[in-house]
Amino acid sequence: MKSHIRTWGIAALLGAALSLFCILPCLAAGSVGQVTLHIGQTSDTAYLTYSAPDAVHGAVTVTGPAGTAVYTAAPTWSDPAGKYLYTAELTGLFPGCTYTYEISGACAGTFQTAADDGAFTFAFLTDPQIGSMTDARATGAMFSLLNSRDDLAFAYIAGDLTDSARSERQWELLFRSGGVHDGAGQAFLSSHLLAAAQGNHDNSSFSGHITAPSAGGDAGPAVYSFDYSNMKFVVLNLNSPDTWTAQADFLRREAAEAKANDQWLVAGFHQSLYSGAAHIVDSGIISARRFWSPLLAEAGVDVVLQGHDHVYSRGFVTGAGVNAGLPVVRNGYHAGSGAPLYMTGGETGAVKWYAARDYRVSAGDLLAPCYSFLDVNSAVPAQNPWGTDSSRTHEQTFTLIRVDGDTMTFSTYMFRYDGRSDRMITAPYLYDSLILRRGDAARADAAVTADPAPDTFPAAGYADVPSDAWYAGAVDTITARGLLDGRPGDRFAPDSCLTRGELVTALHRLAGMPAAEAGAAFSDVSRSSDCYAAVSWAAGTGLVSGMADGRFAPDAGITRAQLAAVLHRCAALSGADLPAGSGIGTYADWRQVGTWCRDAVSWAVETGLLRGKSGNRLAPNDVVSRAEGAVFLRRLL
């Protein structure tokens, strides 16, 4: 953990330095600033918005793979801002290319356009809601962390960029926070494409500082879509119910196109339909939930990214408002169940954190009681994997979402930055992660974790193994192969623990019973022991090691994590290919897997050897039963 904290600390410092370096051309000029780049509805378009104290900075030159193009941004005077605001629609761009721009010779920057294909990562942020210098400094620290990365394609901000959209001072603080991370916001927003949703603290024009495209018609402002590689992202605006019908038609059209093109379908808006805290039964939220929840499920939306509630929460929720109860398959969930993943992005700034509230479900509301529709809720200790109410810890949140073909990986980080003292209190740590798969990736999961075809071995004949038991076929197989002996009295003892001695004996037999180079040097394994040869071989090859006191403890049970570690070493010894796996973070109890065995457990999950238990748990510290041991050995075969 210390090295992890140190890494993020260095990253933050580098990010701060990079932030300052990036904004020097704009700051030095003292004229052009507040630069944002908003993604267009097509990959050949972006919107460059900025401010200046006078009306003579409308010339924009953009240089890319086809040379240099000149655009004109018309100035518009803003009384609330007390300055001119400019927007240039940059058209004719090539997808997935790097461009440099220069604004009237006073400010320069670089950005990359949306890509038509390939893997990419974007940041999900919500509710900076900057109202003061203290808020701004904490948000600046977050931007500095993002500036330290070089893999971010764009950022989606789910609304409420400032506390009061008409306060120009608050907009200025978004870009220049003052203090340690001054200018980090300007550095990020002037070098990354932005996708913004209108929050209830925003106005439809973002006070002229952000130019979002529009789907047109009766859908209203800040309603649009864009494609990035194999993902279609639809941004909706829930602030005006009288536009919902038109927006619904827009969503249906975009959803049909996404499905026809075999794309991921992501929807984003500000107000959370399903979250974990105070706004859950606001009248406006209930109305929105009743209108949008069935529609989002019907349209086949894979992911819904929300804000507004100042907590981090997630869950796969059906159109009827209940938890879909999706199982984890090889460390991932499968999309396409008709239950979108609803994620509320927490608190990007440092304004407020809501606590969970007791609520009653009103008639007609598509809501389950007691937050049972969620899998993770940072406001409820029982659903919070760290066990502490985030309304007390006051930690900021950002989520990095990587889309790689048919796999989408979510990594949510939390940290605490004190804007008053302008210092990091809790360094960023991985709070939550999950993997979502579809298509070929989901089919690969099914293939890896499919039960083996029925064996032709005769029944083992144990009196305590019913023929229809879930482990009966495995017992028949490993008995016929001579890997695991029965217990006295014609019993297999399926519920008894698998001992360390039994495991190494089975693996020794599976390896062909090779001779050991030396005898076992354990005080509790004598030469007359039934497992002496196996323990000697296992210890000599490095498959197992003894206890701290020099014993092997052959009669002690073995945990699921220990078993994964031994099988991982066994596979390496056999020369088998060892896929690294995609991690274990989707399981609810992944933090219980020690660092000493995390790679082995991830490999065991990847190969289908280790599968989750009820409640999407890995249960790494549970002792393996003989029934489970038989199944593990059969999978290993």
Would you spell out the secondary-structure blueprint of this structure?
Elements: H1 2-29, E1 33-39, E2 46-52, E3 59-64, E4 67-72, E5 74-78, E6 83-90, E7 98-103, E8 107-112, E9 120-125, H2 133-147, E10 152-157, H3 168-175, H4 184-189, E11 193-196, E12 224-228, E13 231-235, H5 244-260, E14 264-268, H6 283-298, E15 303-306, E16 312-316, E17 333-334, E18 341-345, E19 376-377, H7 390-393, E20 396-404, E21 407-418, E22 423-437, H8 439-449, H9 472-480, H10 500-510, H11 532-541, H12 560-573, H13 598-606, H14 626-636
Parallel strand pairs: 1-11, 9-10, 10-11, 13-14, 14-15, 15-18, 17-22
Antiparallel strand pairs: 1-2, 2-6, 3-4, 3-7, 5-6, 7-8, 9-20, 12-13, 16-18, 16-19, 20-21, 21-22
Helix pairs in contact: 1-2, 2-3, 9-14, 10-11, 12-13
